[in-house]
Amino acid sequence: MSRIGVFVCHCGTNIASTVDPERVAAASRGIPGVAFAAEYKYMCSEPGQQMIKDAIREQKLDRIVIASCSPRMHEITFRKMLKGTDVNPYMLEIANIREQCSWVHTDKEKATAKAVDLVRMSVSKASKNEPLFTSTIPVTKKALVIGGGIAGIQAALDIADAGHEVTLIEREPSIGGKMAMLDKTFPTLDCSACISTPKMVDVGAHPNITLRTSCEVTGVSGYIGNFEVSIRQKARYVNHDVCTGCGLCETKCPVKVTSEFNQGLSTRPAIFKLFPQAVPSKPVIDKEHCRKLREGKCGICEKLCPLGCIHYEDEDRDFTEPFGAILIATGYRLIDWGALYGEYGGGRYKDVLSGLQFERTVNAAGPTEGHIVRPSDGKEPETVVIVKCVGSRDPKKGKGYCSRACCMYAAKHAHQILDKLPGTRVFLFYIDVRTPGKGYEEFYDQTRKDGAVYVRGRISKIYEEKGQLICQGEDTLLGQQVRVRADMVILETAMEPSAGVEELTSLLGVARDGNNWVQEAHPKLRPVETQVGGVFLAGACQGPKDIPDTVSQASAAAAKVIGLLNKSEMETSPMISAVERDKCSGCGACVNICPYTAISLQEIDDRLGARRIKREVASVNAGLCQGCGACTSACRTGALDLLGFKNAQILEEVDALCL
Amino acid sequence: MKYSYFPGCSMESTAKSYRLATEYVMGRIGIELIEIKDWNCCGATSGHALNELLGLALPARSLAIAEREEPELDIVTGCASCYARLRHAMHKARTDNASRYNIEKTIEEPYGAKREVYNFLDILTSEAAKTAIRENVTGGLRGLKVACYYGCLNVRPAEVTGAPDRENPQAMDEIVALAGADPVDWAFKTECCGAAHQNDAASVTRPLVWRILKNAQANGAEAVVTACPMCNLNLEMRQDGYTKKTGGKAIPVFSVSELLAVAMGASAGRIALEAHHVPAAKVLASALRRHGEGFAI
Questions:
Q1: Does residue A312 share a domain with residue A366?
Q2: How far apart, in whole angstroms, are the C-alpha atoms of residue B251 and residue A256?
Q3: Tens of pLDDT, residues B134-190
Q4: Are residues B30 and B152 in the same domain?
Q5: Where are the beta strands (DSSP E) in B139-209?
Q6: Does the interface ipTM go beyond 0.90?
């Protein structure tokens, strides 16, 4: 007969005001197998834990049931406590009488009766518990950071500074991301390039960082501490080992391609550096547009290169590397507003710019060298309309969520226009103005004092008339329709996850939320981890973020990676699936249902009567299994069981309640 | 090609020239329109505003008859309001079982919503129709600049109509170009014309019409082409204030069928072009004359 101790927590008044702990403890004493029961104000506190430890020693308890808050809150606390006692940490059950009882009920009688039921169920399950033991796996002391925007850059630097090796991969030919495109950053108006390019240089020069641009992840296998990642190095057609980045090759290229970096506002050659401050500061050839690669003619850049770096026969190369931790920092892109907002011209009007196009326009290194002029005729605008929430907070046409950074950069755009072109009339159409951040409200306030006119309402239509853009909308504070004749319109468009995030998260087994943002393990308690062990996230890949939040989160994620890489080996949870080979028919249903690719079929030697045969059975990878239990419900023969949540244990709980 | 045809009340009254031209054009390009037997009012505009079921059952009755009598034929109508109501009934019957049950109970007849509901623009842009139009037009309207006005209900709401572009649709521009005329790029293709509120809220809705006409002319249009008798009526018959109050210049408004009929050689009398309030024949005649073609007015 087991000797179970039941400990009922008051949680101050959280539990005690709706559930009577003394009665729960008294009722527990009558449950078969319970050798001891007690209650206390705060079971998780030092005296509470001491009370449990003393009871274990004095009463020779072998199993513990704690009736308190959710196991997500303090199960780990109590397991740690049990490590110093004779009771195995997995001989513990938590009866959740707070979140699932006292907090949601008002009738004390009924709530107390329910709490007793919950305790009885836990006692039944505990009676079937078996000791479980953690094992350890070695850790590859090297991190992979995916994405070279400011999030990936910051995280890579932090991890590298802590003494660990980092590989930073970026699919574009240069790191820098969106921040490298921006002119100034709110609310301090410091120049974006001045604060991001030194970090880019640091990445390129750091002895612990291997920078791989024009690279993408093509496959991931393994598990926390022991990932094997396949990476494709796309052909660059330029030998970066020899190239000095002199730029001679770019000067005579006959091809003109729309510049991605300048958001379509200028052109670039087919052999190009993404932007002058690119890291690595070396060109690549765009194979879609290079005349030599498409038609076999040209070859001018090859003739011009004094070092013979140009190799038209370069090919994509695949390689595989081991990593202990992976950090997703793939950022965002802006929605294709032209396809969604026909009422704003759908991209037909040249002087309707996206916010990012305006950033390039106002940027001293941009196509107009920082002069704010209309793309259509090169004239300075006298009236500018800024439209916020284009695609944000608009579930019907765009996204339901707020893109968070737009209110602030819209204010910044207004400020920049009024600063560079004093006397310009600037109208901002808004739904709400959201400025939660240090110095943000003050910045917004200053912009209004500078002369920006905020109009509450949406623009319903933009059309061209006599070379101007008529912006038609409503001022909801006046309750009147308004029409503004503008020379330029800036649309502050919604953020959405970067292209390819579906494929990447599928390779990693990481979940996405309803809007395709990468899902964190817990929004408050594990905000920089994913639910896959060893895979972390940082920056706007998780949801819209501004630069201060992105950099903070990158450092937080780096701290988690460093914590993992500092261990030479790590403990794994013993609450994983186990196969009873005799029962397994090798049908493979579990292989298909496992979201973590933790189960595979393995050939074993067996006997059928007197005959020796070979047959396939399921085999669980302890490093990959997260203990979700999906396989146990899929298994037709009951060969799979989740340790700590065996079918027999769960049935015992059900019996305790229903029989 | 054959379709079950829902004419709607306007075709029998205000839109005489639209009806005659449609009959002429469909005959020329080999589209047979079989009028739905005993069709009834589609319910626009007041039906669905008063009672949702009434608004669905009225058009559904005509659709049910069409599907009973000609089960192989899709349904077509030339009026944007009729199109919206018929299409709503079809959409609702397809997507909401409870609604379909109530509709069938009300009209005392099964309605499977098996056939599509189209407007003229849909059927005129089928590949077969386009080929036939190309073969039948004389090319005499070259250089005639027109603004294609779709109105709201030929394209909205998107989940009901399935129209690919609600702000800058292209179907009518394509047909007009096939007829030889020159569609202008303009911004008010699907702006509201005020519809029935032209009768009860003139001070609000008249400027809507003027705005549309002004933008059409600002972009060089000599005429406005419509695909709805109600749109046509509003744009054409509410020009009084436009010329008197805003100093605008009167502009002819006619249906896409009339443009096609003239492009195919129909005389003005044949399609009752004289029925227009703002003379429409002159602009067509002068376009034809530019290319040495006569036009019997």
A1: no
A2: 45
A3: 999 987 898 999 999 999 999 999 999 999 899 999 999 999 999 999 999 999 999
A4: no
A5: 145-149, 182-183
A6: no
